[in-house]
Amino acid sequence: MSTFYVTTPIYYPNSEPHAGNAYTTIAADVLARYHRLKGSEVCFLTGVDEHAANVYNAAEAEGLSPQAYCDKIAPTFVKLWERLNISHDIFFRTTSDLHKRGAQKFLNVLYDNGDVYKGKYEGYYCLSCEEFFSEKELTDEKICPTHKLPLQWLEEENYFFRLSKYQDRLLAHIDENPDFVYPAARRNELLNFLKSGLQDVSISRASLSWGIPFPFDPEHIIYIWIEALSNYITALGYETESEQYQTFWPADVHIMGKDITRFHALLWPAMLMAANLPLPKHIVGHGWLTKDGEALSKTRGIFIDMDGDIATYGVDAFRYYLLREFSFGNDGDYRPARLHARYNADLANDLGNLLNRVLGLVNKNFDGTPEPTTPGEFDNEIKQMAQATVDKLDEHIKAFAFDTALETIWEFVRRINRYIQQTEVWTLAKPETKSRMGTILYNSLEALRFISVLISPFIPETAEKIQKQIGLSEFDTVAEWGRLPVGLTVSRGEPIFPRVDTKKQKQPQPKATAKPKQKQEPKTTELVSFADFQKLDLRVARVLAAEPVEDADRLLKLQVDLGTEKRQVVAGIAEHYTPEVLIGKQVIVVANLEPATIRGIESQGMILAGSGDSVVLASLEEDMPLGTQVR
Ligand code: MSP
User: Fold this and answer.
1) What is the pLDDT of residue 532?
2) Which end of the chain is more exposed for a tag (fewer CB within 10 A), N or C?
3) How far is CA 518 from the centre of its chain?
4) Looking at the predicted structure, is the pLDDT value of residue 193 above 70?
C-alpha cells in the first residue's frame, strides 16, 4: 500500500488561530483527503509550536505560566480544525514529552556528527519570526521585513549549526530536483539566496528559559526553529524509531506560507543531511492571504471575519472560495463579495441547481433511480469526460494547483447542465421516449455521484449531502463510471446551497437621523409610445472575455461580440456571475446606449438582466446569430 505524509507548519499559539492558518491547513487537508480517496495510507500532521518568545510574552501579559497559556490556546486550534472539517491524524504539541525527547535526541545526533560548535553571536532578532537578520537584509531603521516591528539586538554565547557546510549539497539537491520546491518562483528565490552564500546558524539560547534544554548543556535551550522543524519526525516517533516513523518518513509534502519556506527548504534539509536522514519530497510555499491588500495582523486590526462568513455561507463555501479563487503560489486578497459571487454562481447555480433539477425530474417521472437502457447522443462524451476529469484532476493536484483542479471539476458540472439542456430531457416523459429519459437521468445521477467523489477532498460535507440525496447510504469513494445502483430511492432534494441574502445581514443599520429609504417599486404604469420603444437597439451578443474591475466588488468588465463589431461593457453582476461562467454565453445588449465611464472604464452599452433579490442574465431561448435584433 502506498503511503502519504503531509504536514502543515506548527503554528504559534500566542493567540487564537486566524484565517491565514486556516488557509494552509485546508490546503493540506485537501491533499490528505485526496490521497486517502486514492487508497493511500495517509498521515496528516498539524499542531502548535509552543516554545516561542511570543507565547511567553502573551502568557506573561495575562499573568499565566507559559504552559497554562498554551493549555488554554492549543484547544482553540483543535476547535477550529473541527469546524473546518480538517481530517488531521495528529495534532501535535511541542510541549509533549514525545517531542521533547525526540528533539533532544536529534540535537545529540547533530552534535555527535560534528556539526554543532560553540561560538558568540550578535545580531538583530525578530521575536515574531524568531529569526536573526543580517545587516544586509535590513534598512537603517532595523525593522523586521515581514512584521514591520522593531528588531532586538541580541548578543550571547551560542551553539551553532554548520549550515554553511551544506551549501553545495543543498544547491545540487534543489537544482537536480525541480519538484523539490513549489512553486517555481519560490525555488528561484531560494537558488539565488543559496548562491549568495549560507552562514552558520545559532541554535541555542542562553538567555531564555521557555524551551527545551540542550541535551549536552542544560544552561541553554534549543533555538525554536531547530526544535520546531524536528517536530515533523518527532511526532511520528523518531525517538524510538517507531513503526509510524518508519512508515511515513520522509514526508511527501511540507506545506506552508512563503514566509517560512526558507527554513523548510534550506535549514531543515541541511539538518536532515547532517543526521543522515532522507529529505522530504516536496516543500510547497503558498502565497499570503491579504485583506484589502494588506497582510493580516492582529496588532494592526487586519483580519478576516472567518466565523461570520462561515456562519453565512457554510464551511464548504469558505473552503471552496479559498481554494478556487486564489492561485496557490500567489498572494490573494480575501473579499467577501467574491465569496458571495462564488457561492451563488459556482455552488448554488451550477452545482446546487443541477442536483435539484435532476432529483426533481427523477421524482416526477420515476420510482427511484431509472435504468440506463437506451443510449443516445452525448452519453459517451459524458462518460469520457468523467474519466478525463479524473486524470486532469490528478495532474493539477500533483502541481498543487487547487484552483485549476476545481475549475476542471466545474467544467464537468457545467457539461452535465448542458447535457440536460441539449437533450431537453424534461420533454421526454411520453411513453415512446420515457426509456431515453430514464437513461439521461441515470447518467445525470451517476455524473452527480462522480462529481461528489471528485469534490470530496475539497468540500467534503457537500459531497456527502449529494450522495445521500441521490440515495446512497454509504459514501462511495470510487471514481469509476457506472457504479450507481438502479432503483435507489432518491430524496426530494433539500437545496445544498440555499439562497443567502447578504443585504439582510450585512447592510449597516440606517442612522437615526437618516430618512428610511423607500423600497422602489418597479414602475409599470408609465407608458411609452411604440415609436419610443423602437428607438432601443437590442442585439444578441456573445461574451468573449470577462474580468473583475479592481476595487469594485460588484462590477465585471466584459468584451462582447455583436457580430459586426466588438464592444466593452461594464456590468454590475460580479456578485452573481464569475468571469469564467460568462465566457461564451449569449447575452442581450442595449447597443445604442450612450457610452458611460464607470470607475474610469468606458462602457459601450448595457447587458439586460432580470434584477431582483438575485440577478439573472437575459438571453434568448436558443442561440441566434450574433447581432440579431431583439424586439
Ligand atoms: N511556528 C512557525 C512554524 C514552524 S513550522 C516547523 C510559524 N508559525 S506561525 O504561527 O507564524 O504560522 C505561520 C504560517 O501560518 C505560515 O507559514 C502560513 O502557513 C500560515 N499563515 C499565517 N498567516 C498567513 C496569511 N496571511 N496567509 C496565508 N497563510 C498564512 O511560522
Assistant:
1) 76
2) N
3) 41
4) yes
